[in-house]
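Dear colleagues,

For the upcoming journal club I promised to circulate an example of a predicted protein-ligand complex. I picked one with 6-O-phosphono-beta-D-galactopyranose because it came up in last month's discussion. The inputs are reproduced below in full, followed by the predicted structure.
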Amino acid sequence: MSTLLKRVKKLPKGFVWGGATAAYQVEGATKVDGKGKTMWDDYLKKQGRFSPDPASDFYHLYPEDIELAKLYNLNAIRVSISWSRIFPTGTGEPNKAGVAYYHRLFADCLANGITPYVSLHHFDTPKTLFDKGDWLNRETIDAFVKYADFCFKEFTEVKHWFTINELISLAFSQYIQGSFPPSHHFDVTSAIQAQHNELLAHAKVVNLFKDKGYDGQIGLIHVFQPVYPYPETPANQHAADLEDAFMNRFLLDGTFKGEYTPETMKLINELLKVNNAHLTIEDGDMDILKKACTRNDYFGLNYYQPSFVAAYEGDSTNSFNGTGEKGTSEFKFKGVGQHVKKPGVEQTDWDWNIYPEGLYDVLKRVDKDYPNAKKIYITENGLGYKDKYEGIGKIINDDKRIDFIDKHVDALLKARAEGVNVQGYFVWSLQDQFSWANGYNKRYGLFYVNFETQAREIKKSALWFKELGETLKE
Ligand code: BGP
């Protein structure tokens, strides 16, 4: 039998083998059936680079994508509910057409043996709440709790929930890097406050889910971007520790320890001080986090890349590579560190480091430092690539992507063999989709989407995925 698998391996029995999506990136149909605007609609229009319509038109074509998932041996899918499809202005009366759409989608998944893992917030706050300050305004937290409660009551067919996707990416892209609306640069106070407030929203929802005894399991999703000093000097190690505290430890501590440990806060306070920033924690906040920290059923861990950093004392500055012109990104954070290239580590056209060892390292770290994470799903991992269309019905050769996924799955299996409780892997992404700050030429899918015609084509990575998925049937 011919094989695409580079190294012989088997998936563990019962392993979750899925593809990931997010509502705003796949659904399109942003103006139909009573859907309200998100924080993105007007922003993208004004920016004029690309439109979120029709994206992958998943709103209409989900049966086709679910069918492909089934045919290619996937057993799970990550989807998110678009808050503004259910509550067009964030609160108030539910929009029946939006509710009906998600019932149809979940029914189709289940009928095809594809388990839906559902996030409630994936970078798409309703515009009305965004305009009032997004997560920086506690009204958003209250509205989110009500929306979550509605979904738990309504969508009883869903048994696997995630509250919020990648809290740091949202805060970082909105307030540090400026690549998401409202495009602030190095607004450190807003970034740290948004992290805390999102964590609070997550904890409130987990507590509600457990207190009300809803049927199913719940957790959240963090991207874990490990930070390594380069070259290895004490000053660069300190820079790495500072960035790690801001990007990872603050949120992991808050989620799984229910406190920001003194060691983490020492680093965070140093970073805040040098940037004249502050964090406000209100009375009772930490009690809420504490109560929730043992109640997550699992941890959704997204892994793409590490950063390599060197110490940096100058003013903050950054340039975001949202075009795929290699070598155009820059990141220097005052009093924290600057991103450097580590010789020998390959980078993508968007300057992302390719480093599978990083996945092994973060899995081991969660296992050691955060036992309350209990069980881990890799909820996103994948390669952004300029895939070459070959014509209708022709398989697209994406050997690079196969190599990427293969090595990351190996890293995961190695950590698992050493006792880390990893129970699943979702490739980002199921099909090609719209990328927030990069548009349509940064493709991640197992299935190619011709955005002109919406036709799907098969990539070689889908065949690889199928072959490894076959081992689940043995
Ligand atoms: C994660 C997000 C996804 C997705 C992915 C790839 O941070 O959860 O929504 O976009 O990254 O990122 P990008 O599209 O910027 O390449």
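Two points we might discuss: The pocket of 6-O-phosphono-beta-D-galactopyranose is lined by residues 22, 25, 165-166, 169, 223, 380, 384, 428, 435-438, 442 (CB under 6 Å). The longest strand covers residues 115-121.

See you all on Thursday,
B. R.
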